[in-house]
Amino acid sequence: MEKIIGNEKAAQEGNNSSYHGVQLANSSSLFRNLPNSESPIDIVGTSHGRTHSVLRILFWLANLEYLTADNFCALEREDRLSIIDDLEHLESEKHIQKLALLSGDEKDQVCVYYLGTKGAQEASKLISQKVQKPPKNERNSINLYHDIDVSEAMVGLIVDLGIGRLDTLLVGRRLRKRIGFVSRRDGYYPDAYIGFYIDEENRIIRHLFLEVDRGSEFPNQLRSKFRRLDKYYRERHRLVFNSNRLLVCVTVPDRKRLEKMCEVVREVNCCVRIFVGLHQEIGDSRSSNGGWIDALTEESKNLLEKVADQERSQ
Q1: The domain containing residue 72 runs over which residues?
Q2: Strand pairing partners for 192?
Q3: What is the pLDDT along the chain (314 residues), one digit of tens a residue?
């Protein structure tokens, strides 16, 4: 089977319409249970005056686990002061918790928010699924920083794809439960999953796995990971998602790592469509110019139209 490093033309064809009203809340499975501003539901109290907004914050944390104020601003298209006000309200009500992390300069702190036990209980009602607060991590834990990078990249991809086209978002334990346990030797578990509509009229869903690489794995470990990915796709993907469609996005920390990652992908020759880009560019949700596409390698860009042509002909 032909190997293609690249993705579909999905990001360029995203739904850019407003998503603050009911219409997009009801346009895809992901938003079907999300209350609008006129919903009678009262979870966190109406005294705050922005119940609709704080409910959406719980909703995003249920799906993405760790988010910053900037992430919420990108997802909700709200000003930062309003978002901070909502976050402080939720924190005071003990629905969410906050971690202050050092970012670059030791004097520069970034606050990361996640669901508390109380918030997880309420978020479960929003998405009609059991939600648990993320596992406790130490402040300087490598796993925690990796999880935050995953959420950051997911926000960038979500904004590029178009929020109205989302069907499913899965990370952490919910994603592992969906894929199911396989032996550690043969198992493959991506960092995150996005199910999105490529065709709003026909409701055709595409499946995307996200892999966030921090440069810590050696080439032989990367080869093993992509071979497990190939094995998963051949043996389990259709059983798990009832589809043969799968795209894989791999983000890397720098250009040197990007070249090494592309080399490994070509060597393993997976039968899955894989594209590789810089994490900083793919995860930059502040860009409204399709950062996902811009971050691809030149080889990926050259194959982009070919992939789109294949999809249109099927």
Answers
A1: 34-127
A2: 171, 210
A3: 223 333 333 333 333 333 233 233 334 556 555 555 444 444 444 445 567 788 889 999 999 999 999 999 988 888 889 999 999 999 999 999 998 876 655 556 788 999 999 999 988 888 878 888 887 755 556 778 888 899 999 998 888 887 778 888 999 888 888 888 665 666 888 999 999 887 666 577 889 999 999 998 999 999 999 999 998 998 889 899 988 888 899 999 998 998 899 899 888 888 888 888 888 877 554 443 344 444 455 655 555 556 555 655 55
Q: For residue 108, what are the contacts with CB-CB under 8 A and spacing of at least 6? A: 102
- Domain-embedded: residue 25: no
Burial of 289 (0-12, 13-18, 19+ CB in 10 A): exposed
Q: Which of 127, 153, 176 is the last residue of a domain?
A: 127
Phi and psi torsions of 88, nearest 5°: -65, -35
Statement to judge: residues 168 and 303 lie in one domain:
yes
